[in-house]
Specification:
55% of the residues lie in helices and 0% in strands. By secondary structure, the chain is mainly alpha-helical. Bound molecules: iron/sulfur cluster (SF4) (2 copies). Residues 83-84, 87, 89-90, 98, 100, 102-103, 171, 173, 176 line the site of one iron/sulfur cluster (SF4).
Amino acid sequence: MSKMFLDPEKPLNTCIAQKCDGCRVSEKLVCHFNFRQLLIFLLMALPVFLWAGFMIYQFNSFILIPWILFILSFFGFIEIRVMCSHCPHYAETEIKSLKCWANYGSPKIWQYRPGPMSLLEKVVFYSGFIIIAGTPIAVAILQTCYALLSVYIVLIAAWKWALKTFYCNHCINFACPFNNIDSEMRNDFFDNNPAIGEAWKK
Ligand code: SF4
Ligand code: SF4
């Protein structure tokens, strides 16, 4: 059966606890995702991408198509490999695509890799973001459209703040460069997910 999200009562595949009810980790971290989180994430991200697309379209509509194709391939395949394949959510065996709050629907075609990202993975991760976010900045500078650019910068700053506050401060993927979980809470998560804790010690 294909469910929209994982059963919130059932511990993660990597977790050795018998039940999630009463788990201290769940007071701070989000092990299970839901539709509300996904919707809010999309509502936060959409204005940034729509405005960026508008800026590129103003400059040259032929650039827009490759930019969109790059976004789809990056978040659908590349970022999934270098970052999400380290996420405990990726270890769920009963799902064939991600059922999380950010990359919902991306196919799980890679192997699960517990533990931190390698240097090369981080380089690929940041390069993708620089290409996606930098293209509209470059075209705005070339057009000397600083009003459009200012709005874009404000939208990105607002998105970054909201992302950090509502998502990165609660995310179980400690490998992500944006993750903001302190070591005490990480260790609590590792107590329940010892195989992941071991992978982080290597
Ligand atoms: S750490 Fe385990 S028991 Fe606790 S909320 Fe996450 S999956 Fe459930
Ligand atoms: S790292 Fe984030 S986007 Fe990727 S699978 Fe985990 S929760 Fe989803």
